[in-house]
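input
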Amino acid sequence: MSKKSLVLLVVTALTLSLALAVSVSFAEGDKGPAEIMLNVDGKKPATFPHAAHQGKDGVTCGTCHHYQDDAGAQVACMDDTLDKISKCDTCHNADFKNEKLRTWKDIGHGLCKDCHTKMKDAGAPTKCNDCHKKAE
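output
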């Protein structure tokens, strides 16, 4: 192997390694906080273990993080539509069409509780105090 070919091979290998490292870094991205405190006026806050839910039991980012397209269909927004990410209450507010999904309480007792009830045999928390911890 000539010296020129060896240099070209090394440069190519280093370039590919760098490209792989950068793509893995972008793929991991910002996964958000490990834990989120959900506060509802007049109620005990609920602790949401965000990191524990990521990738578990078929849960994808789009399970919770979504938007509605022009036809009204739910579309995941954490994969290829990052520019569409907004806070939940951008849509889930007093003007939201579905009255059952207007507040944190409604969402938590809808999406979260529904999934946890289905996963009860696997040990998912289903009682009020499982999420709404008493102050220590």
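quick obs: The chain has two domains: 1-30, 32-131.
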